[in-house]
Amino acid sequence: MPGAARPTAAKVADRSNDRGIPEATVARLPVYLRALVGLTERGTATCSSEELAAAAGVNSAKLRKDLSYLGSYGTRGVGYDVEYLRYQIAREIGVTQDWPVVIVGIGNLGHALANFSGFSSRGFRIAALLDADPERQGERVGDLEILGFEQVEQLVEEHRIAIGVIATPAPAAQAVCDRLVGAGITSILNFAPVVLSVPDGVDLRKVDLSIELQILAYHEQRKSALLPGLSGLPGDLPAKAVGR
Ligand SMILES: NC(=O)c1ccc[n+]([C@@H]2O[C@H](COP(=O)([O-])OP(=O)(O)OC[C@H]3O[C@@H](n4cnc5c(N)ncnc54)[C@H](O)[C@@H]3O)[C@@H](O)[C@H]2O)c1
Known about the structure:
- The protein is of the alpha/beta class.
- It folds into three domains: 85 residues, Winged helix-like DNA-binding domain superfamily/Winged helix DNA-binding domain (Arc Repressor Mutant, subunit A); 108 residues, 3-Layer(aba) Sandwich (Rossmann fold), CATH 3.40.50.720; 28 residues, no CATH class.
- Strands 5-6-4-3-7-8-9 form a seven-stranded mixed beta sheet. A two-stranded antiparallel ribbon has the order 1-2.
- Helix 2 packs across helix 3, helix 2 crosses helix 5 and helix 3 packs across helix 4.
- The longest helix is centred in the N-terminal third of the chain and has 19 residues.
- It starts with 8 loop residues before the first helix and ends in an 18-residue tail after the last helix.
- The relative contact order is 0.07.
- The N terminus and C terminus are likely disordered.
- Bound molecules: nicotinamide-adenine-dinucleotide.
- Homodimer.
- GO terms for molecular function: DNA binding; DNA-binding transcription factor activity.
- One of its GO terms (cellular component) is cytoplasm.
């Protein structure tokens, strides 16, 4: 279109979803949802943007901007209706519907994830637990029996599963990922400490608690540089442990 202002590549990448909501806002919506669930549990019917922002740990101007993408502006002098805003955000994220999930690798982490009740209360139903180890197969975790990974295609189709969680050791993760994708899984949450590749159209997210801890260590180190004498410094750790 000659003469028309074209969005820059960066803008297109930033606004990658079809509603034009920036990805950074999308990433904060689950945080707002969790804060709203907390407010509901405390019996709060309405809240100001400042209250919600404090509960979510963001600044209130950013929160108001984020919620404006959902067409939610609150009522002057009253604030936001907690229940309605919770519904709006849940609908935007897509958690008003039931999402069946498969977890692959039911070792220490897989057991913890399978036993975590917070998934079902947020719209995620664990539909299948799969492991390659015959010793683990047949064991019950909650309401489910651990089944063999070779059943993945059949189970994904039967339960219409779109989300797969990988909790296998790193060397197995790419092959598990490929087979999940081949079975029809289009979103993957990877806990294995390895970079996975997926084809276009498959969403991949990685959780790495050690990276989060390293970020905290970085901030601790900066705090200790600013405030000498603060306890908990890594100063007397062996050089190897602190990466020196
Ligand atoms: N992201 C994080 O913050 C975080 C935290 C803890 C562990 N981890 C990672 O999670 C993974 C699991 O850790 P864990 O302590 O539960 O290990 P684990 O050894 O207890 O469990 C791994 C399970 O995966 C199964 N498995 C192996 N290959 C498989 C395959 N090809 N298909 C299906 N199942 C297979 C094993 O039989 C075993 O039951 C590891 O990669 C670990 O590094 C990540």
